[in-house]
Model the fold of this input.
Amino acid sequence: MRLSSETFFNNSAFLFSIFPYTFECNEFIRLHCHEFFELGYVMNGTGYHLYMDNVYPIKQGDVLLIDPGKLHGYQSGKTNPLLICNVLFQLPFLKEIIDLQKKSSRFSNSGFAPLFEDHGQFNERLALTDLEHLEISLLIKKMMDEYQGKEADYQLLIKAKLIELFTLLRRSTRSHADDGRNEKKLMEEVCNYIKMYYHEPLSLDEVSKIAGMSRSNFTAKFKQTIGKTFVEYRNEIRIKASHGLLRETDKKIITIANEVGFEDISHFIRTFKLLTRVTPSEYRKKTVRYG
Done:
């Protein structure tokens, strides 16, 4: 389903709209796209954001930025409503705001335009801190009041507040990027640990505890940082270690499987073939160096 601009923009000279929407418990807004940018700000409650082929949990203080033409939808939680404030604007309006920002000495020129150069994380969600949520929610409410009241010069005030909004969000992304670098360093240390102890019965629960994170949080952060799941990464390390043993020794395959951390020979053979496209025996015949 594609939503047209005429439905949301009453003034062709002011391509901006802002309004709250309350999703009742278990309410679902099916996948749709539109001709304009949408910034969704979660004012209250919990639910899910469906974006392209992914589903992300969302909660109070989360910010989403959806590009024109991208499929997305919402679903509220089972036990509480979900309140989202939708800030809608079209590209000409965005360009006008960027030009205004560059000309104004009252606002930082680095605050607005760069946000649209690296806003990919907004499609998933930008989770604000409690203090950031308080600051942003007050600003959002002021924008809604101006838009609904339409008093003198309300358009100019909305433009100024929109610049302020994106400047604050830009600051937040930089702050969260620093957190992301710390998370990256932590995950790199976890990878080093896996490389050292791959031959041990290394479980997801054990590694999550070592990282000081819950199982679900560690799983998400590891995949996001490393690009593969913990099990995929651990098994790749184990299979790479088995390559040398198959080439350099005449040990039995079941022995090699146990030495690199596989307790089940069938699982070892399946995983080996999945990653190398040949069985351990076939690999040994092609690469054997001993004898």
User: Anything to note?
Assistant: The chain has a mean pLDDT of 85. The radius of gyration is 26 Å. The chain has ten helices and ten strands.
